[in-house]
Amino acid sequence: MSRLPGKGTIVVCDVASPAPARRGDDLLIVLERGEEQNLAPLGARGFRLTYADPTGETPIAALLAAADTGVTPMCADPASAANLMLAERVALSDVPVLIEGPSGTGKEVMARFIHRTSERRDGPFIAINCAAMPEAMLEAMLFGHKKGAFTGATEAAEGFFRAADGGTLLLDEIAEMPLALQAKLLRALQEGEVVPIGATKPVAVDVRVIACANRDLPQEVAEGRFRPDLYYRLNVFPIQLQALRERPGDIAPLAFAMMLRHATRPGEPGFVSAAALAKLRQHQWPGNVRELENVIRRALVMADGEREIGASHIVFDRVARIVTPGDQSVFEGLSSQAAAPVSAEATDVLPAKGGRLSNIVRKMEAQAIADALEETNGNRAATARRLGISERTLRYRLADMREAGLAVAGAGR
After folding, report:
1. 32, 126: one domain
2. CB 408 within 8 A of CB 369
3. Domain of 68?
4. What's the gap between Cα 388 and its chain centre?
5. Would you say residue 1 lies in a domain?
6. Distance, CA of 214 to CA of 217 (rounded, Å)
7. What is the mean pLDDT of residues 287-309?
8. DSSP E strands, 34-185
9. pLDDT tens digits along 315-362
10. How many CA atoms lie within 13 A of 357 on its CB side?
11. 68: closest CA among 266, 339, 257, 340?
């Protein structure tokens, strides 16, 4: 099986076969039939896969995980295979790419794959989260600034666009970018140049832009929060990543790959049982691939000293949720273990330790936001006005709550 240029090939052979000739950068996978299934490292560049049933799902998933080098996204489900083919095709060009999908589905992984398979692979790959910093700072980070352009600018900075010159710039959570900055981004995309803060002349840049969004951008355009001209400029080649529950064929190989990634100590489990995989497939994965990784890391701790990860070692995340009274739509696609309504007397709205004031304030803030969303039927603009904060601040608060494992019903409207 071929791999990317300079990355060698994957050599698969039976344990009884003569040792195959291979180069130093080849990956060797040795197959062995046996009752005690196991996937163990074999030297620095190889694995030994012991399997019981050659037609079963588990050895095939284990083989895919062993062959994974992090260069190509894990792909076993037909939906993922189709997206990977699209990504390989668009990598041959320099057109902007818009990758959409729920949080935790691997949008940055896909963006890095496009960069690595493009002619820009030897150039830089720069990623910036548009929701992670204030507007003024984001502009300076993107376009750079001259020395003395503003208070605290004691020296010049080139900005991410110029840092990514000759390579790829990933704009994650593009929907969170303020409208004023969207106009400047549009000009940079159209003209191939940026104007640093405090400068009077533009600077030419050669950058391939990939944007990621976990919100419905057409809806954001319709509601006036995203510029339509920028949307169409970015949406030259769209790739839509499905939620993990919609691509069940990826669950087993991802579980094995994450086991290999995190099982670093000798004696840790070397296999995921069929019963454990069956339990993983039954879950609805509200947190997508990120949640699956948490579950596998937790299972490795639970199965410490045992030969394989079993069903009893699989413990799912418990996500607290605030719901509108009588509204059960929030439970669609969620397992009973992963979702629980929060009543007035609930005490686990957000993770807290003891009765520290900061945790109490966070609980009260979360409940106030939930109440305001309920009163405005999920309208975020009206909710922000009711709370006396900007809509951007509200989005930050909701993002913080999601990071804490809290999903608020109606927050996406």
Report:
1. no
2. yes
3. 10-74+247-313
4. 32
5. no
6. 9
7. 90
8. 38-41, 46-51, 97-100, 125-129, 168-172
9. 987 654 433 333 333 333 333 333 333 333 333 334 444 444 445 556
10. 0
11. 257
